[in-house]
Each structure stands twice: as C-alpha cells, then as structure tokens.
UniProtKB/TrEMBL annotation:
Domain DUF2007: 5-66
Annotated organism of origin: Pedobacter hartonius
Name of this protein: Putative signal transducing protein
Length: 69
C-alpha cells in the first residue's frame, strides 16, 4: 500500500501538533506528526502534521474549524 503523505499543518509546538493529530484521527483522518526540531535545543525547526493526499481537504477543513473556535 502506497501513501502519498502531504503536510497539512506546521507549528513550533509539539503539544499543539499532537492535539491536532488526535482530533484528525478521531475524525477518521489518518495523520502522523513529523518532528523536525533539533533534539539538543528544541528551539530550532518545526513540527509538521502529515496526512494522506486523499484526506487533505477534509483535514484542512477540520483544522480551519478548530482555529476559528
């Protein structure tokens, strides 16, 4: 099975990324967190949330809905 993962959200905060990932998964959208932060300092880099290309629209709609709350 081949997955075409695309970035749907980027943040500096790993906790925020995990919360959004959990919300996506609760809405039946497979998601993974890709932590690109430097492990020594944790101040450089980003944390990306990746979803399947097929779920991109649904994931984007979910994220926009929680940001507007």
């Amino acid at each position: 099975m081949e997955n075409n993962w695309v970035r749907v959200y980027t943040t500096q905060d790993a906790v925020t990324a995990e919360i959004i990932k959990q919300g996506l998964m609760e809405n039946d959208i497979a998601a993974v967190v890709m932590n690109k932060k430097d492990s020594s300092y944790q101040t450089f880099g980003t944390v990306d949330i990746m979803v399947s290309a097929a779920d991109l629209e649904a994931a984007d709609a979910y994220i926009k809905s929680i940001e507007s709350e």
